[in-house]
Specification:
alpha+beta, Alpha-Beta Plaits, 33% strand, globular
Length: 95
């Protein structure tokens, strides 16, 4: 089965709130078998707008990625993130 990925770009405008989000989200990522493959606060932008932090999370499959995103614990963390950063986020299945 193909792996599942959560890919995000976050433009942070409240560092304190974002740090709180990270502390809440980290354990939830692990709980669903995920791991952080990429977390880069200064990605090299070749096309598009300034996107801030680039992040790629890997899960054993796309169902685990979805369960992570839809979980109650991540929903609480996500609400904090929404107040501290503008985010583009997608869930994709690997090949």
């Amino acid at each position: 089965m193909a792996k599942g990925y959560v890919i995000g770009h976050m433009l942070v405008h409240d560092n304190e709130g974002y740090e709180k989000f990270i502390k809440l989200a980290g354990p939830v990522i692990s709980e669903y078998g995920g791991k952080v493959l990429v977390r880069n606060p200064n990605p090299e932008i070749k096309e598009g707008k300034d996107s801030g932090i680039a992040i790629v999370l890997e899960f054993e499959n796309i169902d685990n990625a979805r369960k992570f995103y839809e979980s109650e614990k991540y929903t609480k963390a996500r609400e904090i993130r929404k107040l501290s950063a503008e985010t583009d986020l997608i869930i994709v299945e690997g090949i």
